[in-house]
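Why do we care about 3D structure at all? Because function follows from shape, and shape follows, mostly, from sequence. That is the central idea of this module. The next example makes it concrete: a single protein chain, its amino acid sequence, and then its structure expressed as tokens.
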Amino acid sequence: MKRIALDMDQVMADLVAKFLSRFNEEYNKNYTKDDVVGKRLPELDEAAPHALYEYYGDPSFFRDLPVMPHSVEVVERLSEHYEIYIATAAMEVPPSFMAKFEWLQQFFPTIPQHHYVFCGDKSVIHADYLVDDTELQLNRFKNTGVMFAAPHNEHSAYPIRVNDWLELEKFFMTELEKYKEAETELK
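And the structure:
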């Protein structure tokens, strides 16, 4: 089976939604995802870098991130054809480890714990595909990268890009068919 490595934040979990909800409430603002198109969260507002630092320092911040629509069922369907791994750059936010682990256990219990990779630089990931929202991580990855659409990467021209989990499933099912056809031709 081929391997897919999935990023967590902004691929499986909607970190931007959680940040905006909490930031808007605490700072009496009304920002939406449209306000962060083409920028990173610290660029949103002069208070955003401080807020982000505080939120990331709170171990519970990552525990109740909203699950991206259709991600649970698509991961289950893809796992019938691919080995699924989680590759999260948690080394950048050490307080997030336990919360991310518990979040995965709650929402994606079919992914074995030994398939969780808490790392920094994802070039160390040995998989056939990496699904990530960060161009830097995708560019470092040695095999096929798939950019998952997020507000901050909307203007990216990354060659393989999907907008949501249903598009991601379609991409991987098409890849599976290509792989099966190539195997048949070799026989």
